[in-house]
Write a structure and sequence with these properties.
Number of domains: 1
Largest sheet: none
Number of helices: 16
Shape: globular
Order of helices and strands: HHHHHHHHHHHHHHHH
Helix content: over 70%
Number of strands: 0
Strand content: under 5%
Distance between the termini: 18 Å
Length: about 400
């Protein structure tokens, strides 16, 4: 594989890890449940707040976690090789065991929204599929995704079309808000209070791991199929990338239409549920459109070609940047660690914080990768599953970089 193709994969990882942050930031800044809601957002539903929510849901939500999941499927093959390569398979199993440990530590001790545990579990399953043909990878991956998307759509339809017990819903919402208010007090309290509340919320989310497993596994299968057919290496035909771009942007337009319906209808609960179902089903299509646009940028000259080059160092240390995002955000928002701004910042302010973190991570990733062979946490992880690993570049290599 050529350097250009490796750069493309790194660029996509960089895009994924940066894009995920703007989707995750409300979950750092507000209590679970409330953070995901536009109707019950603690800072109201003013035009600026709803506009940021709209843009995030339209352009980012589910697109970048889908990209990250697909690329993790690629890494399973790059590290583990074919199933017949037993030595690489043993390294891959050790790698995933340590990722599972990182996921448990991250989820319970830093931020409850961890995805590493889900990736490790799905990665163990993908080990057995890593030698499948692209056709089989696509068939199984798309089938699982379509089945679960259909189940979600049917569930949403029953909620929308079924009888509406307003009294029961009001009682449920009152209990939900009381629970969120209690969590808010804990997250805004001492370091120990916020740590305990985070662990409680992580524990409550564990039953969802089965659903997340299947979604992650299906996307990893699709991602590995895209790698094997050259879509993620820039080797696919221009026609393929044009088709993926058109289809993905049409899906994005559909999501925009649903979101417009939500706003026009006064943040209607029914419109929100319909939008969520449509967005869940079509997000991977838009993800592949973003991949195609990155390929076109990598093939271009001038300003456009700078985009993948800027993002590549971020992707080379995506593991470090993902965990660093959690450390930065919990330092800002959780009690006993810094400013303690939990529940205090509206969506426009959150967007500005995200942009600032993007700039910092782009700059520091470039500085670090000019001097070292991999990110600091990538080095630690690799040392744990492979043994001693050089970190600092030699002088000639650093000058060339």
């Amino acid at each position: 594989m050529t350097k250009a193709r490796i750069t493309l994969l790194d660029s996509l990882r960089g895009l994924g890890v940066l894009g995920i942050l703007i989707c995750n930031v409300p979950d750092f800044a507000a209590s679970p449940g409330i953070a995901e809601s536009v109707r019950h957002w603690p800072h109201g539903t003013g035009a600026d707040t709803v506009s940021v929510w709209f843009a995030t849901q339209w352009l980012f939500q589910r697109k970048f976690v889908s990209l990250f999941s697909m690329l993790f499927g690629v890494s399973i093959f790059l590290v583990g090789g074919e199933r017949s390569e037993t030595e690489k398979g043993a390294i891959l199993r050790k790698r995933l065991m340590w990722l599972l440990a990182f996921g448990l530590l991250h989820g319970f001790a830093i931020w409850y929204g961890d995805v590493l545990l889900s990736y490790a579990l799905a990665g163990f399953a993908l080990m057995f599929a890593r030698s499948w043909t692209p056709r089989r990878l696509f068939t199984v991956g798309i089938s699982i995704w379509a089945l679960f998307s259909l189940l979600i759509a049917v569930g949403m339809a029953f909620m929308i079309l079924g009888p509406d017990d307003a009294a029961a819903r009001a009682t449920e919402m009152a209990a939900f808000k009381a629970k969120a208010a209690l969590a808010e007090v804990q997250y805004s309290g001492t370091f120990l209070q916020s740590l305990i509340q985070n662990a409680k919320d992580r524990l409550e989310l564990l039953p969802n791991e089965l659903i997340i497993f299947f979604f992650s596994f299906s996307l990893m299968l699709i991602g590995l199929g895209c790698f094997k057919t050259g879509v993620f290496t820039g080797q696919a035909s221009t026609r393929t990338y044009v088709v993926l771009t058109v289809v993905g942007l049409l899906a994005l337009a559909g999501t925009g239409a649903f979101l417009t319906g939500v706003v026009v209808n006064g943040l209607s609960r029914d419109w929100l549920q319909a939008t969520e179902a449509f967005q869940m089903a079509t997000a991977p299509l838009t993800t592949l459109a973003y991949v195609s646009l990155m390929v076109f940028a990598a093939r271009a000259t001038g300003l456009w070609s700078a985009i993948p080059r800027v993002l590549a160092p971020v992707g080379q240390m995506a593991f470090t940047n993902y965990l660093t995002q959690s450390l930065i955000m919990t330092a800002i928002f959780y009690g006993g660690r810094g400013p303690g701004l939990h529940g205090e910042v509206d969506r426009p302010g959150l967007a500005l914080i995200v942009v600032a973190v993007w700039i910092v991570q782009i700059l520091w990733s470039k500085w670090w990768m000019d001097r070292f062979t991999m990110g600091p946490l990538e080095w630690l992880w690799r040392r744990l599953y492979r043994g001693p690993t050089p970190l600092r570049r030699d002088r000639d290599e650093a000058v060339a970089a």
